[in-house]
UniProtKB/TrEMBL annotation, chains A, B, C:
<keyword id="KW-0924">Ammonia transport</keyword>
<feature type="transmembrane region" description="Helical">
    <location>
        <begin position="69"/>
        <end position="88"/>
    </location>
</feature>
<dbReference type="GO" id="GO:0097272">
    <property type="term" value="P:ammonium homeostasis"/>
</dbReference>
<dbReference type="InterPro" id="IPR024041">
    <property type="entry name" value="NH4_transpt_AmtB-like_dom"/>
</dbReference>
<dbReference type="InterPro" id="IPR002229">
    <property type="entry name" value="RhesusRHD"/>
</dbReference>
<keyword id="KW-1133">Transmembrane helix</keyword>
<feature type="transmembrane region" description="Helical">
    <location>
        <begin position="7"/>
        <end position="26"/>
    </location>
</feature>
<feature type="transmembrane region" description="Helical">
    <location>
        <begin position="38"/>
        <end position="57"/>
    </location>
</feature>
<dbReference type="Pfam" id="PF00909">
    <property type="entry name" value="Ammonium_transp"/>
</dbReference>
<comment type="subunit">
    <text>Homodimer. Heterotrimer; a RHCE monomer interacts with a RHAG homodimer. Component of the ankyrin-1 complex in the erythrocyte, composed of ANK1, RHCE, RHAG, SLC4A1, EPB42, GYPA, GYPB and AQP1. Interacts with GYPB (via the N-terminal); this interaction bridges the (RHAG)2(RHCE) heterotrimer with the SLC4A1 Band 3 I dimer complexed with GYPA.</text>
</comment>
<keyword id="KW-0813">Transport</keyword>
<dbReference type="InterPro" id="IPR029020">
    <property type="entry name" value="Ammonium/urea_transptr"/>
</dbReference>
<feature type="transmembrane region" description="Helical">
    <location>
        <begin position="195"/>
        <end position="214"/>
    </location>
</feature>
<feature type="transmembrane region" description="Helical">
    <location>
        <begin position="153"/>
        <end position="175"/>
    </location>
</feature>
<comment type="similarity">
    <text>Belongs to the ammonium transporter (TC 2.A.49) family. Rh subfamily.</text>
</comment>
<protein>
    <recommendedName>
        <fullName>Ammonium transporter Rh type A</fullName>
    </recommendedName>
</protein>
<feature type="transmembrane region" description="Helical">
    <location>
        <begin position="226"/>
        <end position="246"/>
    </location>
</feature>
Length: 341, 341, 341
């Protein structure tokens, strides 16, 4: 185990550097200052947001922040290659701030899957899974955006639903009955819940940057920011309301506040750049909050006991269901828009 | 209790969505990229800064971060409506990055008041208080900036002093003698003090963005950034010096470092965009640090015992007194400027 | 002790304000919006990044975050004066966002030195050390960039190596045999390691801003961002691989993940803005990771036992050796560039 991981990691890094030597160079067409703040917001989401969100389980604090950093650092190098191979110019992949944002996006799929697998996988398995998932993601993304010409600016389907169901499939394969008894590892403590709130808040705050980073034109970008901002705000109010409602003593549940408040950002993703008006964005956020809270409360226990899918962080409720909801919202928004012409 | 909060929150969200459906739409005149980094800095202050600053009490960690998120998520939706009603065009409120910054500002008043009330109020009370306070804030702000045509770029008076005294008034009304005996809840622990430093630092770092976000023109914006930066730096040195001086063993007090270091940002707010020169900004910071440390050390205990006002987080010393000081500094700066003509 | 620190701090602040009154005024030539996001990234690194990185020792959590804030708040005021005296126009030092970035840079040297001295110095010693070190740094920086006309955009040598060896020299002078027995203070705990990861991640994420902030032109800035991003990513993979390799049970070491993952940012600093191609940046990151891990594992214990230099946070391995490596990489890059002409 000790040597296997080290050799695999070093080998992968050597392969990546050789491929970069052959294929990758700077792209300096786009002025750096415009997209750089957006990039940094997304970058903080990937490393601080996802990293700390998963720290709520008291036994997996180091695993979540540490492995998150390992997966993300490898994923962003691999993502540029996999996405770049579809867009080569004269045999070269050109790296710009925009392609760095896209590489961070590709990394998000692996981190979402990791959320379902936390506590079940070794670092070796996670490195291989990251490599496979990002490769598949890049092919799927190419298919959706280039061949089908579908619009998915905030990537509800291509990142969130994809990452969630990839992770759930892996969780099903890696299912071991002994895990269900490890109740003590699945608990949170006061301080682990506080650390997780750091992750939640940075994801919540910068989600408008995530959904608007690759929008075309400043008008679409502004709409994506505003729609995501309102979807998240409405989703948060509904999450607090339902969290108190489903608890027997009327108390707020930290796991719901940490996770379901973010579902509005996922669900509004696909149609974030369209002129759906703020109130529709809020409505999408409300539905996402309802779906996510009900998922955590009723679906996750059933999936673990009946379907043998143990979803450690509940990514199905945060990324899976809201991602599908986002796809449906996108179809409706596109249909309504066509009708209005 | 359990159903009351849920029903109230859902009802408020429905009302907000209906009002947004009728009145709110996108404003896309201003290019998004210019103010967006400023907006995100202010956004981080509201959710991470205020949220974690209040975590220093060991028993109220979840309350402070969680309720802070609830209040802010509702406040930013309500703020747009209350501020927007004074500036409607053809019956519509137009949402832009700038109005989102203003909505975050309006939310700050409620969060400051919450700092005085932490541990005394239920979520229902806080939602109603937020609704009332933001409504009053929007009217007061309109009165000050539109009718009196007063300048208050960093809102020392309209946000900080307003929020502090609103909260203190509510704390007076909600006073119960039993609270004074709950000493064990008013203590901090090692880790709760570390979490609070996350809040302090993000407030400290992004305060220049807060004070410059709505300054007119890039020259005034640059001055507001520079003045706030120096006022905070000078205030911090004085806070450390006095913190050691007022302690019997010469030790630094975490509560002073967490709070009084920020008073410089409040006090320089009103005149931040004026050409007062960096050394005056530093002088304002020094006075703010002195006032704030003395307030925490001598005034807060007296207010709790004699006036029956329990100021849980000491917002009077961080926002109240420095806010008034900011108003006085603004008057002096305006007077001197007139003399120099 | 109690009065000494307070009097020294207040006296220094008075001197600074008087000097600012005489010499410092606004510079408003450069539009604020362009560099301001870069400035805020660097600002977060100085206060949150350095502050929390040093919290991993359970007994020094408050010292590290608190003293870090004190040193930085004084250093940024002093840095403007020391750096500005070399560039006065008509007897005035003009403060702009760019000079504020440079002042934050000068502060970094003192914070790096503080990492070697944590637990050994009093606040009075640290204030005096900060004053002396920043003064020396400004002279050295002037010598290197103006007289020698050397290029060091990310300041591998002038900040990182300078700060590390200054701190190690002070650690040697302040060596007391009793310190080596205080093993219990040199331990980390679960939560202190989590707090330190906050520092690590914000340093890691914003290092591209650090290395590109003062690059000339948007093309050089884009290259500095991209090179730093890849150097850090490659360094991180190597650090994880070697961390598992050097541990007897194959486990990851938190101290290595917290520190050695950042060595890539230091080492690529000097040549970050040059067109060295992404694969060379990754190679520099790999070498930096190897050097830093070996330093922590083998050199630091030897330095403490044989050379009587106790490097509390291991700044020699994070800033010293990678800084020298950055200088060597810069010489090679400059030589190769000349050959290619």
């Amino acid at each position: 185990m000790r040597f296997k991981f080290s050799i695999l990691a070093l080998l992968l890094e050597v392969i990546v550097i050789v491929l970069y030597g052959i294929f990758v160079d700077y792209d300096i067409d786009i002025p750096v200052t415009l997209l750089y703040p957006h990039f940094q917001d997304v970058h903080v989401m990937i490393f601080v947001g996802f990293g700390f969100l998963m720290t709520f389980l008291k036994k997996y604090g180091f695993s979540s922040v540490g492995f998150n950093m390992l997966i993300a650092a490898f994923g962003l190098q691999w993502g540029i290659l996999m996405q770049g191979f579809w867009h080569m110019e004269e045999g070269k992949i050109h790296v710009s701030i925009e392609s760095m944002i896209n590489a961070d996006f590709s990394t998000a799929t692996a981190l979402i899957s990791f959320g379902a697998l936390l506590g079940k996988t070794s670092p070796i398995q996670m490195l291989i899974l990251t490599l496979l998932e990002i490769t598949m993601f890049a092919c799927n993304e190419h298919l959706v955006t280039e061949i089908f010409e579908a619009t998915d600016v905030g990537a509800s389907m291509t990142i969130h639903a994809f990452g969630a169901y990839f992770g759930l499939a892996a969780a099903f394969v890696l299912y071991r009955p002994g895990l269900t008894n490890k109740h003590e590892n699945d608990e949170s403590t006061y301080h682990s819940d506080m650390f997780a709130m750091i992750g939640t808040l940075f994801l919540w705050l910068f989600w408008p940057s995530f959904n608007s980073a690759i929008a075309h034109g400043s008008e679409a970008q502004a709409r994506a920011i505003i729609n995501t901002y309102y979807s998240l705000a409405a989703c948060t109010i509904v999450t607090f309301a339902l969290s108190s409602l489903v608890d027997k003593r009327g108390k707020f549940s930290m796991v719901l506040i940490q996770n379901a408040t973010l579902a509005g950002g996922v669900a509004v993703g696909t149609c974030a750049d369209l002129a759906i008006h703020p109130f529709s964005a809020m409505f999408i956020g409300v539905v996402a909050g309802v779906v996510s809270v009900l998922g955590f409360q009723f679906l996750t226990p059933v999936m673990a006991s009946k379907l043998r899918i143990q979803d450690t962080c509940g990514v199905h409720n945060l990324h899976g269901l809201p991602g599908i909801l986002g796809g449906i919202a996108g179809i409706i928004a596109a249909a309504v828009k066509r009708d209005l012409r």
